[in-house]
Amino acid sequence: MTIEAVVRDALDTLFRDHWPAGRREFLSAQFDAGLAWVHLPEGSGGLGLPRAQQSGIFARIDAEGAPNGRARNPLAYAMGAPTIAAWGTAAQIERYLRPIFLGDEHWCQLFSEPGAGSDLAAVATRAVRDGDEWIVNGQKVWSSMAHVSEIGMLVARTDPDVPKHRGLTYFALDLSLPGVEVRPLRQMTGDAEFTEVYLTDVRIPDSCRIGDVGAGWKVCVSTLMNERVMFGSGGSGPVDLALELARDSAELRRDPELRARLIRLWIRARVLRLTNARATTDTAGPQGSIGKIGYAEINKAGYELCMDLLGGESLLYDDYTTRVPEGWGQGIDGGDVRRRFLRSRANSIEGGTTEIMRTILAERILGLPPEPRADKDRPWSEVPRG
Ligand SMILES: Cc1cc2nc3c(=O)[nH]c(=O)nc-3n(C[C@H](O)[C@H](O)[C@H](O)COP(=O)(O)OP(=O)(O)OC[C@H]3O[C@@H](n4cnc5c(N)ncnc54)[C@H](O)[C@@H]3O)c2cc1C
Predict the structure, then answer these.
(1) Rounded distance between C-alpha atoms, residue 138 and residue 231, angstroms
(2) For the chain, which end, N or C, has fewer CB atoms within 10 Å of the first or last residue's CB respectively?
(3) Phi, psi (5° rounding) for residue 323?
(4) pLDDT per residue over 283-328, tens digit each?
(5) What is the topology classification, in CATH, of domain 107-216?
(6) Does the annotation count 227 as an active-site position?
């Protein structure tokens, strides 16, 4: 039987036996059928088949109007789960994957700090071992949706006396633990979608450590590469919207260059979709940076074009009141087109900046000489910090 036929059979059985059904029942059955993350091993929500099959599975599920296990829990689905699958113990895979897919536990990413963004390996949050626990102190920032998450993907420094990449350890942090404080941060859209997270003497059980002590950088890279694949597989929202606005746009009739921009963008969005399809492999790798750059550029240019198609109306966004999203279900990319335009400015920063993506492609894909890194071999504790 071909791979496609195996997937089709599994989907047919799922729909025959479990649809229509309640959200939880359907998602649970989808997980058991191996159609949650089809590339993961059997028993972990997968069938051990190529990852490229997953988009077809979701297309069928969406077409049938069945519940969707990824939309309400995007960071956990696209970043947390593959990281646990790659680095977690059997007990952790059992503990975390099903609740992620059912949307019982939402995850956020606690990587960036005031002194560690592009240079993520410089994180200063400290985790010190105390028997079967780790005592964690530090501050994270730009933590999207931490206020509505149950678990944080946390990277902390466990050994300051070795070079920065070697002294890190990764944890799945229960955000309800004493000592975790989440404060909203307001963005230029008015939304407080991201937060800063203060960690004061938080006691994390060692059973929540993902990967070996000191191996946190490798685990982090798994999360980051999956994050870039997630961004890169974003839809063609702004281009579709620009096409819609173009139909009634007086600006378009006045300025033929707008039409040319629209067509160029439409072509770029198509090319990106095909490139992503070609670059999809079972393990997210550095090629994911291609999609991340393309997504950021198309989104930004697309919403800029939408603003130009609206003409003077584009200036009418005036709702800068602080709004704290109440749940993941609200989505972070929707709403008024003017709001989306403002939000899209972040696309070339979040998930790693476009400059950093270019460095990754230059070094890891094209094999160009690495950029100079003066602190690479010095113990982290001896590197001067501001
Ligand atoms: C909307 C949004 C959501 C976010 N969500 C999260 C989240 O959920 N969790 C999380 O952990 N983080 C999150 N971030 C943080 C994001 O990952 C960082 O902002 C990003 O990695 C850049 O780090 P920085 O802000 O410290 O900027 P810096 O690293 O200080 O960079 C400043 C500028 O210098 C450039 N630069 C820096 N180093 C180099 C270099 N070596 N070569 C060339 N140029 C360089 C950068 O490209 C950038 O233009 C989010 C950010 C945004 C905007």
Answers:
(1) 28
(2) C
(3) -125, 125
(4) 889 999 999 999 999 999 999 999 999 999 999 987 888 899 888 7
(5) Butyryl-CoA Dehydrogenase, subunit A; domain 2 (2.40.110)
(6) yes
